[in-house]
Amino acid sequence: MNDTPKSEPTKPAFSEQSFRLRWSLRVLLGVITLACVLFAWGSYQYHLGKVHQDVGQRLESLFEAKQAEDEYWTGYVDVKWTLRKTKPIPVVLSGHASQGARPTRRPDAPIVLADVPNWMKWSGSSLALERIRSILIVSSDSAELLDETVEQIKRLDQIESLEIQSVPITAAQLSQILSHVEIKSLQARWIPESLETIPGMRNSSLERLNLSHTRFSDSATADLPATLIDLNLERTAVTDAAFDQFVRLKKLKGLNLKRTPTSQAGIEALRAKMPWCTIEWEAL
Questions:
Q1: Which end of the chain is more exposed for a tag (fewer CB within 10 A), N or C?
Q2: Which residues of 31-50 are buried (b: 16+ CB within 10 A; e: fewer)?
């Protein structure tokens, strides 16, 4: 009786092909998912850029219209961008020299022409990448213009710096801005309105705050965010009663309390409680 070797059972030919097909489909789905995520992210960035562009244009238009109504009005807005290059251009005077010609824009600042880099023009990526870096508002004494300005700023997602000088902005308006926009540095100096509470500031990410020469009071110190690194309250209404609120600011490196109704003894005690912070003080 002949013993014939038994043949090994053959594996299905389609098993390896099925494995490769499954992995190919997974890779394809991964690529499609990644493409969708990148497209959504790009669309969102483009939308943000469009909002920043519109806000910048509207702010400049609002102040230009006000200046056109009253040639002696001294208010202005200055919007700076993250990627735009600037170069000086000659000051253009309106009228004749014999009639007292004056600059068409504010005389105390350089006249510049802002433009995006060439590579952004070629690639068409300016809206996706360009953002407002800072906004400066000076001497806006029109309540209607101020309301419209605040509404425009609230549309932004974030800016590095907002500076307001000699503008009758209210604590409520400041609170609205800080509730809607992430801002690292806020300067609101020479504000005539009372600043007794600014609730929108509590959960903000402010690192630098300058409220010098304002009516910022003790009650408003409870709204100071823990993220503060530098705080300027020179010539404000804060007293020794607010010192406990300063002690909780563990990241604070600089505190200016010059010319405030605080006592020298209280300041010395505060310095002992805040060895991590440099406190500037002069008697009122």
A1: N
A2: eeeeeeeeeeeeeeeeebbe
Amino acid at 66: K
Cα 229 to chain center, whole Å? 16
**Could you report how far apart the first and last alpha carbons of the chain are, in Å?**
122
Task: Report the run of H or E that residue 266 belongs to, with start and end.
Answer: helix 264-273
CA atoms within 13 A on the CB side of 112: 13
> Strand 254-256 relative to strand 230-232: parallel, antiparallel, unpaired?
parallel
Residue pair 127/64 in contact (Cβ under 8 Å)? The answer is no
The Cβ-side half-sphere exposure at 102, using a 13 Å CA radius, reads 9
The bridge status of strand 254-256 relative to strand 278-280 is parallel
pTM of the model: 0.77
Which fold, 51-280? 3.80.10
d(C-alpha 53, C-alpha 55), whole Å? 6
Kindly report the number of other CB atoms within 10 A of residue 250's CB atom: 10
φ/ψ bin of 118: left (φ > 0), alpha (ψ from -120 to 50), beta (otherwise): alpha
CB contact set of 222 (below 8 Å; sequence gap of 6+): 197, 202, 245
Q: What SS3 class is residue 94?
A: strand
Q: Give the pLDDT score at 97.
A: 40
pLDDT digits (tens, 9 = 90+) for 164-207: 998 999 999 999 999 999 999 999 999 989 999 999 999 999 99
- Contact assessment for residue 212 and residue 232, using Cβ atoms and an 8 Å cutoff: yes
CA distance 18 to 183: 55
Nearest to 46 by CA among 117, 153, 128: 128
Q: How do the domains of the chain map onto residue ranges?
A: 51-280
